[in-house]
Write a structure and sequence with these properties.
The protein is mainly α and 267 residues long. The protein is built from twelve helices and two strands; from the N terminus they run H-H-H-H-H-H-H-H-H-E-E-H-H-H. The protein has a two-stranded antiparallel ribbon with strand order 1-2. Strand 1 (171-172) and strand 2 (178-179) form a beta hairpin. The longest helix is centred in the N-terminal third of the chain and has 33 residues, at 15-47.
Length: 267
């Protein structure tokens, strides 16, 4: 005698199933709303530090000096990337170091004399910050070189030394690119570079390096900058390969030259 497995209709129409579906829908809707609200609040907090007059002046400066490459709405073109979402920190770094506006194409933009006043740079940063949420310009407290230099040195050697050298002396990269030397660079620009990842540099957001980590790295770099090498002349801190090459070519060459001179004199 064959038996057939029956599935009660009551199991398929249980009121608990409807409750679970409604709960899941509410959770998804609430989570999406919270994310959108947080994004809007972040955008508002980034732009609230600027006045309406600064934002309007920044828009005029942007249209006059930047829109030809970045687009009239900062949407980007084939000549330059979009600026929507880069934040005030990126604008402040690029313009305050003279890298922007760019003058010629090449492997990467180089530092050059600044073309705008501090007030104009702040205005442009204010305008771009209103386009979409992005990293804000760090405060003076965030970039103060009063952190832990020992810990900063460890973090720098782990995350930065492979390009910038162990003491920030800079170094060559591929395809004509290079990691610039960090001696003499303003603390806020170092922080902004870590935060925004300009050009070939990776982004070190607060999930990768916390604000405390960034402060410690800045403290280490400023310590190295203000304290000379304990071992004497450091050959621009370019590392053991350069020091070994110097010893081989010049010191050993000098010894060989003295030996030849002594031999010729004795003859």
């Amino acid at each position: 005698m064959a038996f057939m497995k029956k599935t009660p209709k009551a199991n398929r129409r249980s009121p608990f199933a409807a409750i679970l579906v409604m709960a899941a829908a509410l959770a998804l809707t609430g989570g999406g709303y919270a994310a959108v609200t947080a994004t809007a609040e972040e955008a508002a907090s980034n732009s609230s530090v600027y006045t309406a007059a600064q934002i309007e002046e920044g828009k005029k400066l942007f249209l006059a000096n930047c829109a030809s490459c970045h687009g009239s709405n900062a949407e980007g073109t084939s000549a330059a990337p979009t600026l929507i979402g880069v934040g005030a920190a990126s604008v402040e770094f690029q313009v305050a170091t003279g890298r922007m506006p760019g003058q010629a194409s090449g492997p990467q933009l180089e530092k050059k004399p600044v073309q705008f006043t501090e007030e104009q740079i702040t205005a442009m940063a204010a305008y771009v910050s209103t386009l979409a949420p992005g990293p804000a310009v760090p405060t003076d407290e965030m970039v103060a070189a009063d952190g832990d230099s020992t810990r900063g040195g460890e973090l720098f050697r782990i995350n930065c030394a492979m390009c910038h050298n162990a003491v920030g002396a800079g170094g060559a990269l591929t395809e004509g690119k290079f990691a610039p030397a960090l001696k003499g660079v303003e603390s806020r620009h170092i922080y902004e570079a870590m935060l925004t990842g300009p050009q070939n540099m990776p982004v070190f957001n607060d999930a990768n390096l916390t604000p405390e980590d960034k402060k410690d790295i800045i403290t280490y770099l400023k310590y190295v900058e203000s304290n000379p090498s304990a071992g004497g002349y450091e050959l621009a801190n370019l590392g053991p390969v350069v020091e070994g090459l110097f010893a081989w070519v010049f010191i050993l060459g000098l010894i060989i030259a003295i030996t030849i001179w002594l031999g010729a004199k004795s003859n």
